[in-house]
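Example 3.2
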Amino acid sequence: MSAGLPPAPATARGGLRRFTAPRPPAVERCELCATPVAPEHRHLVDVERRALACACPPCAALFDRDGVGGVHYRAVPRRYLHDPASPLTEDAWALLRIPIGVAFLLRNSVLGQVVACFPGPAGVTESEIEPAVWDRFTAATPLAAELLPDVEVLLVRRTDGHHACHLVPVDAAYELVGRMRLFWQGFDGGAEAHVELDAFFADVARQSRPLPRPAVVER
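Structure, written as tokens:
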């Protein structure tokens, strides 16, 4: 009878389990003070790097005040808005020359320009919008004038002649980018990506509130 290898000592077996067992998920931390943050947490925009930074509630609150972060950090707001009084029209959509059915529009303060961002399998493709075009679009779509630079986007979608238009936090837009990268298949994204897109816009619609209108004073 051939001799086998001796059984591993208990301590060695324990060490092996530590290497082969699933690792616990990494704890996300505030990128300013290193405090652990909850799965649902605030973000800051690092304007110079064009990147999102996780933030704990106290650090996020610091940058909620205008001017506190200078030009480096800006807190991402939480508002979701739509404008039932002036919805996105086919003519306004055509002004943007969007090559696919969904995009988000961002006022980039570093460039001093509005950019259209198109999510896809490789991430985000960007195209600058001419100032004259943006002025015409804003005149037709007043919600666009509400955008805060760098931290909010105008999320637009066209499906079978129906148009959706919401002002959302920029981190929500990049959540959409992540979903599209994960589920996109083929030329047009495939059925699974479209299901994810529908679910994302349904969630946005649930959170969205009508754009407040100034009260009309009767004389």
